[in-house]
Design goal:
535 residues; mainly alpha; 23 helices; 74% helix; globular; symporter activity; transmembrane helix
């Protein structure tokens, strides 16, 4: 196929791993570091927000966020992310990856800071302001998904492309880990500086006034890594595939990549003009030709990401509730406000360190050996197995002597989510669609994932409530219980395994082979060869 390809694209496909590859990983990856930090750090402070703003004098338990407000605080960023994925995914194909890339980063920086500066005269005012800025924070984060994946896929060589895209996504693990560490450091420092009694001893005194600063610092910290990479993000040239295949400027593509690769590349403007003339390569998203060529692929990428995120985000956002249920975190009335933040952060940091982060990097190491399909299928399979292993004998795991085993099993579901579909659902949509629709289709796939995250975030909040009305959190209706909620998540993972069968394998193939864009190039080459045959 390489002989039929534009020289600039072939040069990228066969390029040896160089410094610019790692530079691109860091630049795109720091955006993902920020994405994960911003999306998941809210779960570390929701209990604190409840204690500060929804405390009732004389209540036997600390204040918690009412159900609707808790769902809004946890879920509003996902709504923004879904919107941003669709909008910026489309815009990335219309305006170019680079031009849109800076916009998303600045939105993230501004809204991270603004989230921590959420003020109001009443608790409702503070929460409303926080939700407003977290929606727009999510909007910026949403744009980072299709743009980072598309840019990395279009810069990478075909031999190690999977590892490079997965490495960008793996920065999400470090973002989750950083969220836990920042919360540990900040809450630990304030806890030592402003000691307070536990709630059952002194209701009012268990939440020092300074606790209101803690959650703000944790939320605002997410702006720092994004701000540090803004300059380098703006210095990156537009990807050659966008410049050549979408903007139809082969000279600019060859010039940009000659500087990046340090090789001489022929422009081939005449070949670009001929590719434009071939109607088979001009179909849009809402056409029969797209449906015929990529309809099942898009169904596969959207459905698997949707199902994966139902399980993944419900586990991540509400692991603090699960840890409380099994006794790994003490009852809230037996802690003060800052101690509760510290213990939740400690539990989530341990899970991230022992299972989340290693799982991402196992994918980086093996994705170009095992292939995307095998890793995704394996990941969904083991997530299903471990989720049922947690759910069916759930009462066994709640006994004090078995809690360590529960945490190990729970960690393994995270490990195989990340050494599995959480990484591959991000990688594959950036590889299998045409350049002019690549960012859009990745955005649609990612938005389906965030729809799943919303289902997980809102649904699990209610579903995990006890079936016993006396054990339900204040303001919530009875649910199906943690055990049955875990069974549902196990079934969701099994469905993900089935829909993986719709996803094609892209290991070792060029982007043009996967998207069939070089079918037009083959026609050109064939036509040129026919002209040379003597009659």
């Amino acid at each position: 196929m390489a002989k039929d390809q534009l020289q600039v694209l072939n040069a990228l496909d066969v390029a040896k791993t160089q410094l610019y590859h790692f530079t691109a990983i860091v630049i795109a990856g720091m955006g993902f570091f920020t994405d994960a930090y911003d999306l998941f750090c809210i779960s570390l402070v929701t209990k604190l927000l409840g204690r500060i703003y929804y405390h009732h004098e004389g209540a036997p338990k600390p204040g918690i966020l009412p159900p609707g407000i808790s769902a809004a605080v946890n879920g509003v960023a996902f709504v923004g992310t879904l919107s941003g994925q669709l909008f910026f995914g489309w815009l990335g194909d219309k305006m170019g990856r680079k031009r849109v890339y800076g916009m998303t980063l600045m939105i993230m920086v501004i809204c991270s800071i603004a989230s921590g500066l959420s003020f109001g005269k009443t608790p409702s005012g503070v929460i409303a302001t926080l939700c407003f800025f977290r929606f727009w924070l999510g909007f910026g984060i949403g744009g980072d998904y299709p743009l980072s994946a598309t840019i990395m896929s279009e810069y990478a060589n075909k031999k190690t492309r999977g590892a490079f895209i997965a490495a960008v996504f793996a920065m999400q693990g470090f973002g989750i880990l950083a969220g836990g560490i920042v919360a540990l450091v900040v809450s630990g420092a304030f806890k030592n500086a402003y000691p307070a009694p536990i709630y059952s001893v002194n209701n009012e005194g268990s939440t020092p006034q300074e606790a209101d600063i803690v959650w703000r610092i944790i939320l605002m910290f997410g702006a720092i890594p994004a701000l540090l990479t803004y300059y380098w993000r703006m210095k990156m040239p537009e990807t050659a595939r966008y410049t050549a295949l979408v903007a139809k400027n082969a000279t600019k593509a060859a010039s940009d990549m000659s500087k990046v690769l340090n090789v001489e590349i022929e422009a081939e403007d005449d070949k670009i003009e001929k590719i434009v003339e071939i109607q088979g390569n001009n179909f849009g998203l809402f056409t029969k030709e797209f449906l015929h060529r990529h309809g099942l692929h898009l169904l596969g990428t959207t459905s698997t990401w949707f199902l994966l995120d139902i399980a993944f985000y419900s586990q991540n956002l509400f692991q603090k509730d699960i840890f409380s249920k099994i006794g790994w975190i003490p009852h809230p009335e037996k802690m003060n406000a800052l101690d509760e933040v510290f213990k939740i952060a400690k539990a989530q940091t341990l899970i991230a360190l022992c299972s989340t982060v290693p799982g991402y990097w196992f994918t980086v190491a093996f994705i170009d050996r095992m292939g995307r399909f095998a890793i995704q299928l394996m990941g969904f399979f083991f997530m299903t197995v471990f989720m049922f292993a947690l759910a069916i004998p759930y009462n066994h795991w709640t006994k004090k002597e078995n809690r360590f085993g529960f945490v190990v099993m729970y960690s393994l579901t995270f490990f195989f989510a990340n050494f599995g579909p959480n990484a591959t659902t991000f990688v594959v949509p950036a590889e299998i669609f045409p350049a002019r629709l690549r960012s859009t289709c990745h955005g649609i796939s990612a938005a389906a994932g965030k729809a799943g995250a919303i289902v997980g975030a809102f649904g699990f909040l209610y579903a995990a409530q006890s079936t016993d009305p006396s054990k339900v959190d204040a303001g919530y209706p009875t649910g199906i219980g943690v055990k049955n909620a875990l069974i549902v998540l196990g079934c969701v993972n099994f469905l993900g395994m089935l829909f993986t069968l719709l996803v094609p394998e892209s290991k070792g193939k060029s982007l043009e082979e996967m998207s069939k864009e070089n079918e037009g190039e083959e026609e050109i080459t064939k036509g040129e060869n026919e002209k040379t045959i003597p009659v």
